[in-house]
Amino acid sequence: KNQVEQSPQSLIILEGKNCTLQCNYTVSPFSNLRWYKQDTGRGPVSLTIMTFSENTKSNGRYTATLDADTKQSSLHITASQLSDSASYICVVQGGKLIFGQGTELSVKP
Amino acid sequence: SQTIHQWPATLVQPVGSPLSLECTVEGTSNPNLYWYRQAAGRGLQLLFYSVGIGQISSEVPQNLSASRPQDRQFILSSKKLLLSDSGFYLCAWSVRDGFYEQYFGPGTRLTVT
After folding, report:
1. Of A108, A109, A102, nearest to A36 (Cα)?
2. Do the strands B108-112 and B10-13 form a parallel or antiparallel pair, or are they unpaired?
3. pLDDT tens digits, residue range B29-57?
4. How many CB atoms sit inside 10 A of residue A108's CB?
5. Alpha-carbon gap: B78 to the closest alpha carbon of chain A (Å)
6. How far is B15 from chain A (nearest CA, A)?
């Protein structure tokens, strides 16, 4: 069964700290993996897209990694800001897009 | 540049009433169009997608329907709303070729009372 599982479900960190969000998937065939940021009450916005040949991709303070062998991805946020508070969604494209449930990140001052 | 619009932004409707949500895309031609629903605390669920005018694929059986009367217009409808239809509805578009990035609209918050 094609699934995308994210952990943790929610996370609270202090402003300025780093954090890492996890995504494990069992999607086949695999085309690409995406990370989206969704602010409360808004549509998701793409952060990164990686194909199986890409190990890492950065977008500002966001760095995504992909291990296609273990079918794991992570999203690392450096020097967190209050505006990073959002839901982060991992999406894997096989034949279809399979969405994870998201990790709710709260950055506190 | 491309822009995607959704309206209304919020909607409160009684059970049994009809529904019509509209989505339009500007700045691109022949997009793939999608309707998603996000229930409170849940992930995104794909409801419908369309690869062209009049071409609708349904992902989940339900009392909702979708139509694409024009190339860049996508409409989500219901004849009679259920309480379970409450949620955050998102429209998205993508180009057709390659591994396509999806661009989401601002969403419609629907509350069925």
Report:
1. A102
2. parallel
3. 899 999 999 987 778 899 999 999 999 99
4. 11
5. 22
6. 23
